[in-house]
Design a protein that fits this description.
By secondary structure, the chain is mainly alpha-helical. It has one domain. Helix content is 71%, strand content 0%. α3 packs across α4. It is globular and about 35 Å long.
């Protein structure tokens, strides 16, 4: 989860592309990923709850982002999402 937060906090443009990506894939009211705060347990719960619904979209989105920006965080996310 830390790497996901890192990729979105360092790139506001990525946040916009993510919402556009969800719209393109038929999500009528897409939401940005609710990023957690280390000291607030409810923010962790909100992010996990969000992830269970949107995880299916993450692999392709982060794969496309990796082509734009080859960061260590994106590489780590793709590695975890590719591991069954």
């Amino acid at each position: 989860m830390e790497k996901v937060k890192e990729t979105f906090t360092r790139s506001p443009a990525r946040r916009r592309r993510y919402v556009d990506y969800l719209k393109f894939h038929g999500i009528s009211q897409p939401r940005k990923i609710p990023l957690f705060c280390k000291t607030r347990w409810n923010s962790w719960f909100e992010m996990v709850n969000y992830t269970k619904d949107y995880l299916v979209y993450w692999h392709r989105f982060f794969q496309a982002e990796l082509e734009f920006d080859k960061t260590e965080a994106l590489t780590t996310i793709i590695t975890f999402l590719s591991d069954k």
